[in-house]
Write a structure and sequence with these properties.
Blueprint (H helix, E strand, L loop, with lengths): L12 E11 L9 E9 L2 H14 L2 E11 L7 H11 L4 E4 L3
Antiparallel strand pairs: 1-2, 1-3, 2-4
Length: 99
């Protein structure tokens, strides 16, 4: 169950982190796949730490995180709608663009 906040301003921000990650069975660093991670965190440092833990949990052994930002509005793109809802619920959503 997601924590309840009296006011949405009290709730942690929803971050989106863009980067590339490589699974153990993918060989060279050039084989890394693009990833987007959506999650709630208190600050950027916490968001990066949580994102790296989530990638490790998904079987990735190496990651380069290129950009971090805060999502201010619900996304219009169907690719991100469920991931955003998951992040609001306190989950970490990892979207990996595998070939």
């Amino acid at each position: 169950m997601a924590p309840h906040y009296r006011d949405q301003a009290d709730a942690p921000a929803v971050y989106i982190i863009l980067g590339h990650a490589r699974a153990a069975d993918m060989g060279t660093p050039e084989a890394a796949v693009p990833v987007n991670i959506l999650l709630r965190a208190a600050d950027e440092d916490s968001a990066v730490r949580i994102a790296l833990e989530a990638l490790k949990g998904e079987g990735f052994v190496e990651a380069t995180l290129d950009q971090i930002g805060v999502i201010l509005d619900e996304p219009d793109d169907p690719t991100f709608e469920q991931a955003y809802e998951d992040a609001l619920a306190g989950e970490v959503a990892v979207i990996a663009y595998r070939g």
